[in-house]
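User: Quick sanity check before I run a bigger batch. Here is a single chain. Can you write out its predicted 3D structure?
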Amino acid sequence: MRRRTTRALIAALAAMLAVVASACGTKNPSAAGDDKVIKIGAWYPLTGALASFGIPERAGADAYFKSVNARGGINGRKIDWVVKDSAFDPQQTVQVARRLVDQDGVVAIVAANGTAQSQATFPFVLEQKKVPVLNPLGGDATWYRPARDGLFGLQTLYEDQAAALGDWVARDGAKKVLVVHSDPAAFVNVAKEIGPAARKADPSVRVKRLKVKFQTSDYSPVISKVKAEKPDAVVLILASAEAASYLKEAKLQGLSTPVYGYAPVAAQSTLTLAGKAAEGVRAVQLVKSPNDDDPAVEEFRTAMAKYEKGQPADFITLWGWEAAKAFVEIAKTIDGPVTSEALTAAYEKAKAVDTGVGPVLSFSPDNHLGTRDVQKVVVRNGRWESQGDFFTPPTRD
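Assistant: Done. Predicted structure follows.
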């Protein structure tokens, strides 16, 4: 009688364990390397003032993931990309990260948005849960120097964009350069890198900086100060709307000094707001122009029209597309279950990853930032057009 009771108890415990294991598997199939789905997550500002960036970035990545799923997925596994609203708030992003990892069971965070927002999640996502953060849209040098376990990026740092601009203006023959920048530290730190790069290309170049209060809308006094300096070239380290305000006021006051800008200036919104005043503006970008006559860019425009109707095929959506495509290109090299550990290992070995719309990416165990390259773009006939190929900015001292 006692033996029967013992056997029955063991059988009952085994059944309970099976139920628990089954429940855990249902909650997080991807973490165990599910054969049918790869569950990944991201956060974007889908509400609030920065939604104008978050919504199109999400749309670009989503269009690529949908196109991959329509072709059968990654090695036969469909992509389940779970996106949540960060509202561009670090505290909310931490809560979003907890839900994505603990409740949704994602194996990686892919193409998420925001520097401060993403960084706030690192103690939980990277350090505690060991879930990799791949191809985030944002970041700074401290993320990658030294390389951080599980964190891999493809966005050329703003400081390197500034180095590219300094080199560009000097090689274009400017001897007196004025950098117009917003006053927050994030803008100041970028603006400081232009002078050393310009002088490295041509020691005779003189570079001055003009600080402007963030979100200034009246650029009349700013243009008056620029005219007084009589520069050969002006570099804008401003948000898109403020760059447009500068360009419109410069045209109004008859200032025709050549203008250069970093990636946030090279946006469709700059053209929309500045109109004809933007003609001839030069800038560096992270990707090719979405207007280019290029097969990879044409694929992007076609997919946007098919899967994300109503969203423009512009630089912002192309950023998201590139981040998603780079992930897929690396994930498909994995032979076996696509887990957090497998993705980290695949990224560390990834070499010459070509999305066709951005720079070729290469990673290693000691280098988790895939590129420093940028693309020159110029406004011609009201459209951003690529100029030449991607190039590597001079090394910063």
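The chain is about 45% helix and 15% strand.

User: Great, the batch can go ahead then.
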